[in-house]
Structure formats: structure tokens, C-alpha cells
């Protein structure tokens, strides 16, 4: 008889743990992935260029000057940096 009670207690505790995790962790409510390539999250645009080569040149120039940068995959190509790097990126690109 005690084995039945112990088993019931174990399953009860596991059930309560599952409910607690479901409550505190919840569902994954992240937005649908960006399939068209227009959402860049935290990045801010600092330049738009027509060719991939021009975008790569600007990204390399920014990286040489200590600014983390990337570009979009589709034309027109956007050169993007993190928001805190925008002022430095604009200074580098003007020079």
C-alpha cells in the first residue's frame, strides 16, 4: 500500500513541477521569423548602397575603425551597426 502512495506522491510532485514551469516559463511568444529579410532586430541603418561590393567596402572600413558592422543580404544593401555605434559609424563614413 505504501508503494502506491509513494508513487502517487512522486507523480503529484512531478505534475506540480510541470505546472509551475509552464506558468513561469510559458509559451514561446517570439514573433514569426523574418523571412523577407527586412527586420534587423537591434541593428540601425547607417548607409544604403546599390551594390554588394560597395556594402562590403563600407563594412570593412567600419570594422578597421573599431565599429562592429554588417550588411543586408538583398539589394539595395543596407550597412548596419548597433545603436550605440551609430555616431561613430557616421563619423567614420564621412571621412
Structure description:
The chain has 95 residues and is an alpha+beta fold. It has a domain at 44-94: Hypothetical protein rpa1041 (Alpha-Beta Plaits, 2-Layer Sandwich), CATH 3.30.70. 48% of the residues lie in helices and 15% in strands. The protein is built from 3 helices and 3 strands. The protein has helices at residues 2-25, 52-64, 86-94, and strands at residues 44-49, 69-71, 77-81. The protein has a 3-stranded antiparallel sheet, with helices on one face. It is rod-shaped. The N and C termini lie far apart (83 Å). The mean pLDDT is 89.
Properties at a glance:
95 residues, alpha+beta, Alpha-Beta Plaits, 3 helices, 3 strands, 48% helix
Strand order of the largest sheet: 1-3-2
- Write the CATH fold name of the domain at 44-94: Alpha-Beta Plaits
Could you tell me the number of beta strands?
3
CATH superfamily of the domain at 44-94: Hypothetical protein rpa1041
**What sort of overall outline do the alpha carbons produce when their principal axes are compared?**
rod-shaped
Which class of secondary structure composition applies to the elements?
Answer: alpha+beta
CATH architecture of the domain at 44-94: 2-Layer Sandwich
- How can the largest sheet be summarized? 3 strands, antiparallel
CA-based gyration radius: 25 Å
Distance between the termini: 83 Å
Oligomer: single chain
Summarize the structure.
By secondary structure, the chain is an alpha+beta fold. The protein contains three helices and three strands, in the order αβαββα.
Write the layout of secondary structure elements.
Blueprint: H1 2-25, E1 44-49, H2 52-64, E2 69-71, E3 77-81, H3 86-94
Antiparallel strand pairs: 1-3, 2-3
